[in-house]
Amino acid sequence: MEYSVLKDKVLSLKSDEDFSSLALEIFNFQYENNAIYRRFCDYLNVVPKAIHSLKDIPFLPIEFFKSHQILSVQNDIQTTFTSSGTTGQQTSKHHLTDLDIYDKIFNQIFEDFYGKVEDLVILALLPSYLERKGSSLIYMVNDLIERTNNIDSGFYLHNQQALYDKLLELEAKKQKTLLIGVSFALLDFVEQFSLNLKTTMVMETGGMKGRRKEIVREELHRLLKNGFGVENIHSEYGMTELLSQAYSKGQGVFELPSSMKVFIRDIEDPLTIFSKEQKTGGINIIDLANIQSCSFIATKDLGQIVKKNQLKILGRFDYSDVRGCNLLTF
Q1: Is residue 123 part of a domain?
Q2: With contact defined as beta carbons under 8 Å apart, do 243 and 270 qualify?
Q3: N or C end of the chain: which has fewer CB within 10 A?
Q4: How far is CA 239 from CA 21, 131, 212, 227, in A?
Q5: Is the separation of the CB atoms in 30 and 72 below 8 Å?
């Protein structure tokens, strides 16, 4: 199966049945074309003929994106997205040979969830991302801002007074607006300003990025709801190593897009997948849009499946605390 055929199938995905069959096709494609992923599968004594369902597919630990070049397509690399990190810390690198699929999938997911982007003004308060190169989030938000085709849309770095004034102006015009911000910057903002927003949605993208003490999502959302005067705080769940995103309109429950499925694994036995909902464990993600790299990733996030295609994020854990992770050293 050629990459271009798989790409077209991902972008036109309609049903769960299509998802399962396409995931198996992509697994076979990546086993054949991704040397690192094939070695990982071989290490586990897993071969394609032994894969009969999604749960049989091996999930590559996300740490491999820090130590190896994860590629399933051997064309020239168009861009490399990198994760944030402190000085001296090794960061993840997601190499893309085809940016077009990222452009199409994030726009498709966003509009499935929020409607036409042209109907919105999008304001972005993402200082930690703007201050470095290689952020996939900045790439995505910048594209969305441009697609609003509205002069009021734009990025804000440290000019919080200007952001406050713009929010008041848009509220007065009853303009439907989306404010996207990293958690610490949104908290900094509501410590200076208080609002009572009616036509503005507030979305946090997670993370204090070392700027503030980490707090649980419930407390973060309580503070932000009080400061912005809104009933719910929206959230975005994405990462450097993925091309798809999940969104939440409140309570930290994320709706999965058609290109993603999630399984919960036992943190004491990473190869065991829980069969029941509401069990807490490590989050394994199938992101079919990741054809170029690896679509089957074991993340460092803790969570639980609330119900079909709904995910709750509960925190993170360190792989050093999990048994069986000598697989990372091959």
Answers
A1: yes
A2: no
A3: C
A4: 25, 17, 20, 27
A5: yes
Neighbouring C-alpha atoms within 13 Å toward the C-beta of 108: 19
Dihedral sign for Cα atoms in the order 27, 31, 34, 38 = positive
How far apart are the C-alpha atoms of 296 and 133, rounded to whole Å?
26
Tokens of 65: 């994106």
Kindly state the DSSP code that residue 327 receives in the 8-state scheme.
Answer: G
pTM over cut 0.85: yes
pLDDT, mean of each 10-residue run, the chain (330 residues):
95 91 97 97 94 95 96 96 73 96 98 97 90 91 97 94 98 98 94 97 81 78 97 96 97 94 92 86 97 97 92 76 38
What's the CA gap between 15 and 303, in Å, rounded? 24
What b/e readout covers 104-138, taking b as 16+ CB neighbours within 10 angstroms?
ebbebbbeebbeebeebbbbbbbbbbbeeebbbbb
pLDDT of residue 209: 57
Nearest CA-CA partner of 233 in 162, 163, 183: 183
**Among 217, 248, 279, which residue terminates a domain?**
248
Range of the domain at 200: 101-248
CA distances to 57, 123, 201 from 39, rounded to whole Å, are: 14, 44, 45
Q: Note the maximum CA span of the chain.
A: 62
**Residue 93 falls within a domain, yes or no?**
no
Task: Kindly tell me the burial class for residue 259, based on how many C-beta atoms sit within 10 Å of its own C-beta (0-12, 13-18, 19 or more).
Answer: buried
Are the CB atoms for 39 and 324 separated by under 8 Å?
A: no
Question: Of 219, 248, 277, at which residue does a domain stop?
Answer: 248
